[in-house]
Amino acid sequence: MATQRTLCIIKPDAVEKGATGQILDRIQREGFRVLGLRQLRLSRRQAEGFYAVHRERPFFDELCTFMSRGPVVVAALERDNAVEHWRRVIGATDPAKAEAGTIRKQFGASVGENAVHGSDSEENGRIECAYFFAGVDLIG
Ligand code: CMP
Prior knowledge:
It is globular, with a radius of gyration of 14 Å. It has helices at residues 12-16, 20-29, 44-50, 60-67, 82-90, 103-107, 122-132; strands at residues 3-10, 33-40, 72-80, 116-118. Strands 2-3-1-4 form a four-stranded antiparallel β-sheet. It is an alpha+beta fold. Helices cover 39% and strands 20% of the residues. It has one domain (3-135): Nucleoside diphosphate kinase-like domain (Alpha-Beta Plaits, 2-Layer Sandwich). The structure holds adenosine-3',5'-cyclic-monophosphate. Adenosine-3',5'-cyclic-monophosphate binds next to helix 4.
């Protein structure tokens, strides 16, 4: 299985709950290499740019308001089969449907406030890591 990159965002709800450390610990226990790690507060414009693919969806405004309400932690992750593995670890978008042991089951509250993000394809993993990290800032 090929080495891939995926982007993790620890969303404002999870940062507010003090879950950052537990989620970073899980990332390491799952065998990911952390290539880059930043805490920042997204501007409204940054949130809209990141989620531009959802621009026409009814939840877009709510999503961008939520994502810019407080600090997030973004992590560029690498491992074999990173995209699928991280999506399995975080669980279904709706925490109520997420399997036991997943991060969204543990920390998510609703489909909107669902604790973490994961890229949905290898291509988006690369694009999303580049959204937050310059190449020189990633551990090669
Ligand atoms: P994420 O994996 O970050 O990618 C898109 C996000 O949109 C998703 O997580 C959810 O947090 C959010 N989302 C998806 N569906 C809804 C919805 N019906 N209402 C509010 N937010 C949603």
